[in-house]
């Protein structure tokens, strides 16, 4: 069959996949069907688990165009496989893929239908998205512009039967089914029944949880998905929202609605609550899309969801109210429907989440493979031994397969999940809610946390510190506030009163906190026209602001000639005619307003000082503007600049509605500065200090001014007082010159680099703006990783740049946490290993964690719980591995005498000991403080392997000693029901029961070796549980975990009781035999020595000696911290003994830190400029570097 190169779908997107085409091959299907019959259906299960095997086994490769089945593989690190069936849709008439629309008569179309001419459109569906074959690009594409479908985000709730089949076909349950069948064949009915009972409970619980999640998501999505809407087609008509298609013009009702699709406003204004998507409860003003006009760049450009976000109403967001003019309806054009909408994509990410990539889970599979390999050895051993002893074939098969079921613990997944579930409950108790429980373990590895500034490190609300007005190009002295009668009619106050996006909702002012503080400082009153008023006037101004009467000058004595003037004075009002909302990309907002009685209008501008100054006439900006601004920002103030422009009289109300924003925001007059104080939250400094002590790096990512951000970083302790801050100012290529970075100190330019080289890893920090970050990302890729290694302040960052920064930090192997208030941080919160939103709304679905505590004290709490959960996972995994190995050793030793453990012995060990212990040992709470040491990230690490291997050897040694020693006792002989190893009185009590036993004929369960190994192994399970249940420094000590302590003490008492004081009923139940009292004392000493050796090796050798001297070398600190008090000579000796040679650190950031510590040109000196190189094709830059450092002239 013809093959072709791999096709790529969703290129350069998050869900990019490689695609291959296949055609079903009948003879291959027949061969596979035969194989399924021969293997009793196991091959079918295998093909169900492995979709790539299924396709390759039953199909032959063909071109994608002719494919009947497509096989897709994700291009990310997980390399997941998906298969989809290609379907055919018949579309009569014109080819919908034709780019040029041709006029076709109705007669021709009718004729085409009559002759059954149908175009075959091929498509497949994957993850609720349809991909259609496009002949123009010779590939499958998401062509929503052609085939819209029903406007509905359909979350189908699967039937219980379907969920049951999917759950039962899990490899874990299939293995359990195999085990149960095997145990039943070996007459272990009680044990098999107990496992079936537990599996049924586990499956029922899992089904209930999954079903509940589906129902919750379905209810959340469908609550407002089907509503009646008014659509402008031939006339305005009522229609169901499910019938909406892109291109429809829908009418937004004046009393608000919940948007059933993504639509762009073409007339009117809307106040929208977007908390469902962003987590921010502050209402947002959406304005209509600008009309295309001459020189109007925004109007002429093609519509883009990202660029025109402030004109777009997103699906699922709540339109609180609308504003319109002269009876005109507020209309919006539908642009996306169904799963293509912003809400649809959000639901899709919940329905089809990416798997969590964490070393622990990869290592767990490797560990299980090792257990399978050990089981294989036992399998071969049992077959050889049975053949040598002429054991029947049926018994050989059952007992050899039994070894495999013993070695691989069936309760492992449930045991591993328990620790995470307990951690999730503890987090919930302290107000942290989690929607991705697997992330809790990953949070235990966090070694860098990014923080948003406003609302996260600092108070959400800003306080007005003062204003500094400008007149005739010079600054006045700063004033405490603008609430003065002398300023009431000034343009400065008018700008403060009008340039905002506030609105009245239920009689209360609502909007951005900064706007709210600024408007409240004026003392003015805001009034909005009602719906009735709007319908009565031809030109109604939707919002009017006016000063209170007490601010107006006192009324003079009235005279006829003054009557008109007083009327004007008392009616001093400003109406807001048009609003250009704040844009984080433009860093400014603008309004057009008109004073009542005035013919000419005014434009008022507010925004970042640097941006506003660049839009003003140069003669109106004070010469010392930069110095004054720097002085304020260094003190940590947030500074907003104001500007004004008197508009031409020819600009009428209608013209203003269509004018371009760029035209309005030119040639402004600089009015002055508003200085806002953003206080640190009380908890901020203490939390950052705790993180620094724990060697966890902290980074600030903010949309605020850089110098303000640096000042806040110093105030909160993120940048220590003695450390230097280097600002990287990057400029893009211009006029044929290459991109370049200039380096300068943020504080004192006279202090040179001498002290920077004393400890280059801990004495300097980089700071840069969003613009510089964009240039560096594009033109200095190999420099970016070096900068993020010491980058501490990233200012003026756009939302997508925050996400890029998280990715850059992850690229150098940092485990990155992100803490934000939900506004503009959604992408970064989702991308980080552990994103925690401080928004009080549960709607921050983008973030894995949401805190009800509105400060960053939740961050160390989350890391502590993550570390505790991670250590719990290690403890449980180690314990379950040892449980399997201990039981494997017991069974293997007993197989040598053709014996085994009894049915009720297995039952007692697995139910009474293992389940009780494993579900209580996970209950240890987190340690009360963060320590500088991090837990290992995977199971395949020195300390853990050493711990497991030594405990295996100890258990093997002591079981072998007990097994061999009992056979060398003077009283020992092959046990029979008539055996007399105990005293006569005890024999009299036990004799009848033993005489009635015929079990020995079939399984040879009752013997002295079995009894001895049962006692020793039962105590070994408890010993390793206690030894592995670690406390400090990541978890509370085990003695504080009272369920675990009670369980262990209870089991110890019971085991010692039945060992020293045999009870015939218990002995008969557990199938153990009576042994002399002297041998019980000997077993007691074996158990005591076993416990002592296990504790000594685990606590003294591993925790004290090896961990501190050998394994502690791989630390997590971002700044290469030194650890005093460690015996370096001892460390070298033990490293040599353990064959640990000096090697390059695994973490990329540590490797970079080593390289930079010996680089004489790093960090760059303030007197240098770094310029991007433009190497010729085929001539790579020297040393692989794409930049060169030059001294400034």
TrEMBL record:
Its EC number is 7.6.2.16. SUPFAM superfamilies: Calcium ATPase, transduction domain A, Calcium ATPase, transmembrane domain M, HAD-like, Metal cation-transporting ATPase, ATP-binding domain N. It holds the Pfam family Cation_ATPase. It is found in: Early endosome membrane; Late endosome membrane; Recycling endosome membrane. InterPro entries: ATPase_P-typ_cyto_dom_N (IPR023299), ATPase_P-typ_P_site (IPR018303), ATPase_P-typ_TM_dom_sf (IPR023298), ATPase_P-typ_transduc_dom_A_sf (IPR008250), ATPase_P-type_domA (IPR059000), HAD-like_sf (IPR036412), HAD_sf (IPR023214), P-type_TPase_V (IPR006544). Residues 1182-1193 have a biased composition (Polar residues). Residues 13-134 form the P5B-type ATPase N-terminal domain. Residues 1160-1193 are annotated as: Disordered. The chain crosses the membrane at residues 27-49, 104-124, 188-210, 364-383, 403-423, 870-898, 904-923, 944-966, 1012-1029, 1041-1061, 1081-1106. It is a multi-pass membrane protein. ATP-driven pump involved in endocytosis-dependent polyamine transport. Uses ATP as an energy source to transfer polyamine precursor putrescine from the endosomal compartment to the cytosol. Belongs to the cation transport ATPase (P-type) (TC 3.A.3) family. Type V subfamily. This is Polyamine-transporting ATPase 13A3. It comes from Oncorhynchus tshawytscha.
């Amino acid at each position: 069959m013809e093959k072709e190169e791999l096709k790529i779908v969703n290129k350069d997107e998050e869900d990019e996949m490689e695609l291959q085409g296949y055609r079903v091959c009948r003879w291959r299907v027949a061969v596979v069907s035969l194989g399924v019959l021969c293997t009793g259906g196991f091959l079918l299960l295998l093909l169900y688990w492995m979709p790539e095997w299924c396709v390759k086994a039953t199909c032959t490769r063909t071109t994608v165009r002719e494919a009947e089945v497509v096989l897709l593989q994700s291009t990310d690190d997980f390399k997941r496989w998906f298969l989809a069936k290609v379907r055919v849709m018949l579309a009569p008439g014109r080819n919908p893929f034709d780019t040029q629309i041709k006029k076709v008569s109705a007669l021709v179309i009718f004729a085409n239908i009559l002759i059954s001419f149908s175009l075959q459109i091929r498509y497949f569906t994957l993850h609720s998205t349809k991909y259609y074959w496009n002949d123009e690009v010779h590939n499958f594409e998401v062509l929503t512009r052609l085939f819209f479908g029903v406007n509905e985000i359909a979350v189908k709730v699967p039937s219980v039967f379907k969920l049951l089949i999917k759950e039962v076909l899990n490899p874990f349950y299939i293995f359990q089914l195999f085990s149960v069948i095997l145990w039943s064949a070996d007459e272990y009915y009680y044990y098999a029944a107990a496992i079936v009972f537990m599996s049924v409970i586990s499956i029922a619980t899992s089904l209930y949880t999954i079903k509940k999640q589906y129902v919750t998501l379905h209810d959340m999505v469908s609550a407002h998905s089907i509503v009646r809407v008014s659509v402008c087609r031939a006339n305005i008509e009522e229609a169901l929202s499910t019938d909406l298609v892109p291109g429809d013009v829908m009418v937004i009702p004046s009393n608000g609605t919940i948007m059933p699709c993504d639509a762009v406003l073409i007339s009117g204004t809307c106040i929208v609550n977007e908390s469902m998507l962003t987590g921010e409860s502050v209402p947002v003003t959406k304005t209509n899309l600008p009309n295309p006009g001459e020189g109007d760049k925004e109007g002429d450009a093609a519509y883009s969801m990202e660029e025109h976000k402030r004109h777009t109403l997103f699906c699922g967001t709540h339109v609180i109210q609308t504003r319109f003019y002269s009876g005109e309806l507020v209309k919006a054009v539908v642009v996306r429907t169904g799963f293509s909408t912003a809400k649809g994509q959000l639901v899709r990410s919940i329905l089809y989440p990416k798997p969590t990539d964490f070393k622990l889970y990869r290592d767990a599979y490797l560990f299980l493979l090792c257990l399978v390999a050990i089981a294989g050895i036992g399998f071969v051993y049992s077959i050889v031994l049975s053949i040598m002893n002429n054991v029947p074939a049926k018994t050989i098969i059952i007992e050899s397969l039994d070894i495999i079921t013993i070695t691989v613990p069936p309760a492992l997944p449930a045991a591993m999940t328990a620790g995470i579930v307990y951690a999730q409950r503890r987090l919930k108790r302290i107000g942290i809610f989690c929607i991705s429980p697997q992330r809790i373990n990953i949070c235990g590895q966090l070694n860098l946390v990014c923080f948003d500034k406003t609302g996260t490190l600092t108070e959400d609300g800003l306080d007005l510190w003062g204003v500094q007005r400008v007149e005739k190009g010079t600054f006045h002295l700063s004033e405490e506030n603008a609430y003065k009668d002398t300023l009431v009619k000034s343009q400065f106050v008018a700008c403060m009163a009008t340039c905002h996006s506030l609105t009245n909702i239920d009689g209360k002012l609502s909007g951005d906190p900064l706007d709210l503080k600024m408007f409240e400082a004026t003392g003015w009153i805001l009034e909005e026209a009602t719906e009735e008023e709007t319908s009565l006037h031809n030109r109604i101004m939707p919002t009017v602001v006016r000063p209170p009467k007490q601010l107006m000058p006192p009324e003079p004595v009235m005279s006829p000639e003054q009557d008109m003037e007083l009327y004007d004075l008392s009616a001093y009002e400003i109406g807001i005619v048009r609003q250009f909302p704040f844009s984080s990309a433009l860093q400014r907002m603008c309004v057009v307003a008109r004073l009542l009685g005035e013919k000419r209008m005014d434009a008022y501008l507010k925004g970042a000082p640097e941006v506003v100054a660049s839009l003003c006439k140069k003669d109106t900006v004070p010469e010392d503007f930069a110095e004054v601004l720097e002085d304020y920002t260094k003190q940590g103030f947030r500074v907003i600049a104001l500007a004004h422009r008197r508009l031409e009289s020819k600009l009428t109300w209608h013209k203003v509605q269509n004018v371009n924003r760029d035209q309005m925001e030119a040639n402004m007059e600089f009015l002055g500065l508003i200085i806002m104080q953003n206080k640190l939250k009380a908890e901020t400094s203490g939390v950052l200090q705790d993180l620094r002590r724990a060697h966890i790096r902290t980074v600030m990512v903010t949309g605020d001014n850089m110098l303000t951000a640096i000042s806040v970083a110093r105030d909160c302790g993120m940048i220590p007082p003695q450390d230097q801050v280097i600002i990287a100012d990057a400029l893009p290529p211009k006029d044929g010159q290459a991109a370049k970075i200039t380096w300068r100190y943020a504080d004192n330019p006279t202090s040179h680099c001498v002290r920077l080289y004393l400890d280059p890893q801990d004495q300097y920090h980089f700071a840069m703006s969003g613009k510089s970050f964009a240039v560096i990302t594009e033109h200095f890729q190999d420099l970016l990783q070096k900068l993020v290694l010491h980058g501490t302040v990233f200012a003026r960052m756009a939302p997508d740049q925050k996400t890029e920064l998280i990715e850059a930090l992850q690229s150098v192997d940092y485990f990155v946490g992100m803490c934000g208030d939900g506004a503009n941080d959604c992408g970064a919160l989702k991308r980080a290993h552990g994103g925690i939103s401080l928004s009080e709304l549960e709607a921050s679905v983008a973030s894995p964690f949401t805190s009800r505590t509105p400060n960053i004290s939740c961050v160390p709490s989350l890391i502590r719980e993550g570390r505790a959960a991670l250590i719990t996972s290690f403890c449980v995994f180690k314990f379950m591995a040892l449980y399997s190995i201990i039981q494997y050793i017991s069974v293997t030793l007993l197989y040598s005498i053709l014996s085994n453990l009894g049915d009720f012995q297995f039952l007692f060990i697995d139910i009474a000991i293992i389940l009780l212990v494993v579900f209580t040992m996970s209950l240890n709470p987190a340690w009360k403080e963060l320590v500088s040491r991090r837990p290992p990230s995977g199971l395949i690490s020195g300390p853990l392997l050493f711990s497991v291997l030594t405990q295996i050897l100890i258990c093997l040694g002591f079981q072998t000693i007990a097994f061999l020693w009992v056979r060398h006792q003077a009283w020992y002989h092959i046990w029979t029901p008539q055996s007399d190893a105990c005293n006569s009185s005890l024999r009299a009590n036990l004799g009848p029961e033993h005489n009635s036993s015929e079990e020995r004929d079939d399984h040879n369960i009752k013997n002295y070796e079995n009894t001895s190994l049962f006692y020793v192994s039962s105590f070994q399970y408890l010993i390793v549980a206690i030894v592995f249940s670690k406390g400090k420094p990541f978890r509370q000590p085990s003695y504080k975990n009272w369920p675990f302590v009670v369980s262990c003490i209870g089991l110890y008492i019971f085991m010692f009781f039945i060992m020293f004081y045999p009870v015939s009923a218990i002995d008969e139940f557990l199938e153990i035999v009576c042994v002399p009292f002297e041998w019980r004392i000997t077993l007691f000493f074996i158990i005591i020595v076993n416990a002592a050796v296990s504790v000594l090796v685990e606590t003294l050798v591993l925790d004290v000696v090896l961990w501190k001297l050998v394994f502690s070398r791989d630390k997590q600190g971002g700044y290469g911290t030194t650890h005093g008090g460690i015996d370096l000579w001892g460390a070298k000796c033990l490293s040599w003994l353990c064959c640990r040679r000096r090697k390059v650190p695994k973490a990329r950031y540590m490797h970079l830190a080593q390289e930079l510590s010996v680089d004489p040109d790093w960090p760059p000196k303030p007197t240098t400029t770094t310029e991007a190189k433009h190497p010729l094709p085929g001539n790579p830059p020297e040393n692989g570097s794409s930049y060169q450092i030059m001294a400034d002239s």
